[in-house]
Prior knowledge:
The chain is of the alpha/beta class.
Amino acid sequence: MKVKTLVLKNFRNYQDINVNFEDNVNVFIGKNAQGKTNLLESIYYCCIGKSFKSIKDKDIIRWGEESSYIGIETQKKYRDVKVEIKLNREKKKVVQINSLPIKRIGDLIGEVNVVFFSPNELKLVKESPDERRKFMDIDISQTNKRYFYQIGRYEKILANRNKLLKTYDNIEKIKETIDIWDRALVQSAHKIAFEREKFVKAITPYTEKAQEYLSGGKEKVKLEYICGCGVALDENFDENMLKLLKKNLEKDFRFGYTTIGVHRDDIDIYLNDVEVKTFGSQGQQRTVALALKLAELESMNELTGEYPILMLDDVFSELDSERQKRLLKFVTRTQTFITCTDERKLSGKKFFIENGRIKAEE
């Protein structure tokens, strides 16, 4: 899967550009705050339907303008896909696939698959379980639309159950109606937990290989999916989780929220048999995060028959020279977009970025 062209109008600091890309490596070179990451963001937006930053849609419209346009043309194994997104400060965004508008953002997910990595992705290893759940959800959703909608369903059920826990000051009143939400929550949690467990098992060997490769064989990584439902993932999952929800009702009522469920899932990550989050150096944590992202490439390729687009935002400044060389050899298997601040010896098509203007190397 390749991005052939990108068209931007009033996106971030870009007024009007039309760019053609190479099938292999594309390098965006420029000083800080010139718009390199904005280019990655625009492509990512067309793949996922939102930014990799926690922002509102209107925040990416160019300052002083009322509307914005992002468009990419891609070449896939079996068909070409054109994605267009129109943003307006006063109206709902419009998303089109091959000139046909879609009603739900879930219809966009999986059309053009992408893996994004930046130094900020260190939080995938270091920070709260929220980051690792987000990692699982974005990856699985790109190859499984039903999973994407199941996540939305679970969140609605959970919100309704939590609202019920907070509405009444008498637990007996809650018992009259909470069984409906318990059964719905269990049914949804079952589907999500089993998909997440399958995903972690699938990427584990790829992560191991990537970590071993990047570290020159010095580091061995291990992943373990931790289900927050409090019961084993077996044929009795539904029955046992339902029992546990009833057992925990008094505690949930006291706290005002549901204390078990897939909203408390996590991935434990070990490097050379110690927890990398706690005991790994920053360099080791960064390499593990990168290995997880490279594992996504292989997992998606196995499931879809083609590699996703890879984006590396200012990654090379954070790696030592040996790991830089190893990473560059690895990325040749897919179309890759790289940002950097200098003209390092990177093979591929080079684009020079300055204040929202882009010029391709001749």
